Amino acid sequence: MRQYYCTFFMLLFASFLSGQQAKTYIKAGLFYDSEQNEFLENKLIVVENGLIVEVSDANKANTDGHRWIDLSAYVVLPGLIDAHTHVLFSQSPKDDFAEHSVITLTMESEALRVLRGSKRARSYLDVGITSIKDLGNSGLYLDVALRDAIEEGTVIGPRIFASGPILSAPGGQIYGVEPKHQDLISGEYRIIRGVEDAKIAVQEHVNQGVDLIKICADNLPNETVLSLEEMQAIVRTAHGYGLKVTAHAVTDESAQKAIEAGVDGIEHGFNISDSTLNMMAKKDVYLVPTENSREYMELFSELAGYDFGSDQWIDRYREAMTERLQKAIKIGVTIVAGSDNYNELNVSRGSSSIDMFKAYFDSGMTPLDILQSATILSATHLGKQNEIGVLKKGAKADIIALKGNVLTEFYPTIKRVVFVMKDGKIVKSAD
Ligand SMILES: [Zn+2]
Predict the structure, then answer these.
(1) Disulfide check for 79: which of 28, 198, 398, 420 has CB 3.0–4.6 Å away?
(2) Where are the domains of the chain?
(3) Measured distance CA(186)–CA(191) in Å, rounded
(4) For position 431, what pLDDT does the model report?
């Protein structure tokens, strides 16, 4: 009897659901095909139950009786991806990173930290970023908690791919902490003590439901580094569970060692050499160039209160970043877009993050290549190329629209996001 009722209600529920969720037709002005890296005209996207069920020529479809969204005046793209965020961490430009990390761990409750993080996460949707890869500095799995809250609809925000605590050598990135207080650091980093421990750390992360593994190949200004054998154990174990591994690497030496260990990606790579870039191209290891535009650096410098020839310092920084990015592209390294912006610059976190697009553009990347780095290339290196970063049958209905000409007026246009849909639900409307 009980089973009978169960079946009856399930049928009722299913018919109610299907009645509620008619197809939605979206007419695109220009349609971005991220796989081919080109714009197409006259395309219609059909959305049902949060997924794209068809992409067809606009004049062929019969749209009678279905919901209709006219984006024919706009450029339509898959939701963008920021592959390097820290939504559970924030500091002012005047703050010292290590001091502020200690304050965060001792004076900001986990509850408050997550609530603040959820507001930052929400702001990514407003700028058209519908997925983020959150790479640590998030306490003990607060990123996983926020991801789940968003996924179940408790909180509105982008899709989060969470790394959990960063795996790192003793001290993590929090310098200057006395021996008796080193335990504090374990609240923010998973400290690795040997090859066997490296394997256990990945298993702990797997049990907590992380989506990928982030390691610190170097810890500068702390001098400690993970050994090659520790990184190999991490990569082997993570890959065994189907998880990608991405490595923070500032020095060329640590980047090389991480690549030798088999990581999937390098974050930052500020001082990377040509031979390391060649290794990356050969082994298909992607680079996330977390660089900022001149305008960002000037504002940061002003807010930080720097009064020493900051113009020259910024000039040198921008020259080095431009040279590095152009070399990487020439050598054939895959570029994945990631901001790493965690400073409070009097704008929302999402607005601050899209500065990376300006930086890449100023460093000589073409608009099309930037869009591909923030969509399908990013998705592919997460193993999610059929779900996000692409507008095709079976992908999640994460769809955005821009007003303007993204090819001739790239940055003003990419900032003008007029429509955002995530999982088939409209979060920002064009009218
Ligand atoms: Zn970072």
Answers:
(1) 398
(2) 19-78+391-428, 80-353
(3) 6
(4) 65
